[in-house]
Amino acid sequence: MYRPRLLTPGPVELHPKALEALARPQLHHRSEAARKIFLQAKAGLEAAFKTQGQVLILTGSGTAAMDALVQNLFAPGARVLVPVHGNFSERWAKIATEAGLEVVRLNLEWGRVVRPEHLESAQGPFDGLLLTHSESSTGALNDVRTLAQAFKARFPESLVVVDAITSLFVSEFELEGWGLDAAACGSQKGIMCPPGLGYAALSPRAIERLKPRGFYLNLASELKAQSSGESAWTPAINLVAATAAVLEELLPRLPEHIALKRQQNEILYATGQELSLKPVPEVKSPATTCFYLPEGVSYAQVKEAFAVRGATIIGGQGQLKGRVFRLSLMGYSDLYDAYAVAQMMREALRFG
Ligand SMILES: *Cc1c(COP(=O)(O)O)cnc(C)c1O
């Protein structure tokens, strides 16, 4: 008998503090109690992103934060470089195209990471660079700090915007310290809350450069409202309360938590190696594993082998659909869980 478990890179197993917060009576979002919680969540997120700027809490998923950043930091016609090496970096290209930007794609094989040499090959000038820190569709981790540095050496006026959706709380991250201007995250990933919030981080430089547009995701309206603990529209206040509650416990021990996530992922990759599974990413993100399917085995078979053991896993997206499977312990879990999942891999992946 198995308890149902999510081993997916979002949504994830919830933190008990999130569950506790969600069980509280409904708050009115324009009450003093709600404002206090909102400001607590906002300050906690600013500490997590390591920014002296502001983190805006948006009701929507991680993509809402990505969309809001592109729309509010670049005017239509702005020229941005987008390295594409997976499903989520592809999403940056789609969002920017939809926002009327001139998108210069840098196509790399899925699973690869972006190197400064790749950026060098792109013909400027550019107003911005859109990067994916942890490309969850392939399990690859980019060195966004080095990339931002290399890009800004050539285009000092540009803005570097990062999808940190599966890297924040899972891997080291710094906004201004790494030369980044803005970043996005979502509630159903490393922070172990339910889906429903997008977090949009703006450095002081990005705040100065804001070119607000749009109605619902207008960041100038949000900056104004959120500085006093409200938001322009009715926020998912219950999820904001869950965010605040988890941060209170997580922030003081973030370095240990990040070390745990790395160790868990190493255990799963080591088990994959023992089973002769071929990893997809060139540089491994601690947020998820991504393995090619064994010869002659379908994703449906692997999925079912985990499902009978209570676990939900996930397959490939885009061009990796039907070719890979992914496992993640980004959610609430410890080393014990990693060893249990490793043993389950040995049992579930015994085919033929
Ligand atoms: C989950 C995820 C997103 C956002 O997806 P939503 O469904 O909008 O929350 C974006 N980028 C990465 C790398 C992700 O893992």
From TrEMBL:
A Pfam family matched in the record: Aminotran_5
PROSITE patterns listed in its UniProt record: AA_TRANSFER_CLASS_5
Transmembrane segments: none
GO molecular function, a single term: transaminase activity
Cofactor(s) the protein needs: pyridoxal 5'-phosphate
InterPro entries registered for this protein in UniProt: Aminotrans_V_dom, Aminotrans_V_PyrdxlP_BS, PyrdxlP-dep_Trfase, PyrdxlP-dep_Trfase_major, PyrdxlP-dep_Trfase_small, SP_NH2Trfase/AEP_transaminase
Homology family: Belongs to the class-V pyridoxal-phosphate-dependent aminotransferase family.
Name of the protein in its database record: Aminotransferase class V
UniProt keyword list: Aminotransferase, Pyridoxal phosphate, Transferase
PANTHER family in UniProt: ALANINE--GLYOXYLATE AMINOTRANSFERASE (PTHR21152:SF40), AMINOTRANSFERASE CLASS V (PTHR21152)
Gene3D superfamilies hit by this protein: Aspartate Aminotransferase, domain 1, Type I PLP-dependent aspartate aminotransferase-like (Major domain)
Domain Aminotransferase class V: 23-316
